[in-house]
């Protein structure tokens, strides 16, 4: 077995931000995913005609901004002080403003793509640009210090992810401005959109999932730590490869081969991370399967399937990019988020009640009792069925109505389970 270096440290729970701050992000996220799935159930095959369809872009941004980024923002506000000992300044006020701005901005951007109205793009640009600028500024202040012992790999991954977020936001604002003032800005929209999507999904979301995995997979699923060579080199290698792929996107001749090689290596690197995670899960100290381990297993299998599909030589069509997007967004990112929320929300609620108990409140129940395991497993089964139907709908659009319906039910079930956990006394 390769030598492992645990990138973990004793968690500083005394530095937890107020309970309500990350919770508002975590409870909002499934509702945005349910809204996106509900739109798919309503509109059906018109939503999956092409990745460039305005309604497909509306659905995608509701998921990516309203659900994925919403969860990641809340997780960073929660984990930076606890895992890395880096408190975000004025976390109460900043958390509230970022949450409101991101939620309203995601809704406006979805409506803007749906209605194709420049005024809506202008409002979304203002809200989302301001919210991310505020969040990134606060995180920069928090991380302006060397990482504590044992948190180096996690902090390095977070820094790379936040850098990717800066690039994603800059490119997204540029695209939104092109839609907001179409008569003034003439840009190569397809090339910028591809680069924006790569930095957003593989950089911001993907690198943050990898960084958090170094901490939460061993901690929550009782596995061995990730190998040292992976934790020390994977994030940096992926970032360099994405930078090289971005620069070489318009190269021709030998330069085009270089660009394709960068994309190939990015896919292989993500597949290696997924395979390493699956190996750790297979050897975990607690062999019983729970919803979180099932979700992480599904996420890693989705990454491998997306990598194979992206790298497999086949004629260009509309179905394959849609299927890759479904695997990476719904299969990978959304599955990881479901699994994380099933661990983080009950624990935060338990910790909140435990602190209140010191002031005379009754003893809280065990963390495992906040969400009954059978309810979490049934919700996972619905999610998996919805994912399979969504993949089928990429090739047979008539399945999109039922795929959207099942995914919507799964997201609402997650929201109900999390809501019940927060009301436990």
TrEMBL record:
Tree of life domain: Bacteria
TM annotation in the entry: 21-42, 62-84, 96-114, 120-144, 156-181, 201-222, 257-282, 294-312, 324-345, 377-395, 401-420
Entry keywords, A to Z: Membrane, Transmembrane, Transmembrane helix
Coiled coil (residue ranges): none
Name this polypeptide is given: Permease
